[in-house]
Amino acid sequence: MSTADLHPMAAGHIPSYVTQADGSDFLLTFMFVFTVLVIVLIGVGYFTLHSIPEKIAHESNHPQFQLVGILALLALFTHNGLFWVAAILVAGFQFPDVAAPLRAIADAIRSLGNQRPEDPAPTQPAEPTAQQEH
């Protein structure tokens, strides 16, 4: 488009963001695409942030993996950061297994109770009697 084709009252330089005569608006199209991309990236970042406790618990094969998942899901739906912090804390620390010694004691007692009566009980070595000495 040459300057001869322009209206005599038009400016010599028209910026690229001004709407063209055919109705195309470069700035509107660019801002629409940019806004959609920013919203998608914020969503991906938000979901990635909320999945961090589950990733931590899964990598360490955490015994409370389901609890961490529930807390992270509650944090996602309620937008309550306290649930997310609790999920991170539960995923980050291993609670001591206090039931393991009790299970071992219960298993030992159970195995003692399952012995058959015809099994001879361990006996003391026989003391020599008077007849065996002669």
Automatic annotation (TrEMBL):
It comes from the Bacteria. The keyword Transmembrane helix applies. Keywords: Membrane, Transmembrane, Transmembrane helix. The keyword Transmembrane helix applies. Residues 113-134 are annotated as: Disordered. The chain crosses the membrane at residues 26-49, 70-93. This is Uncharacterized protein.
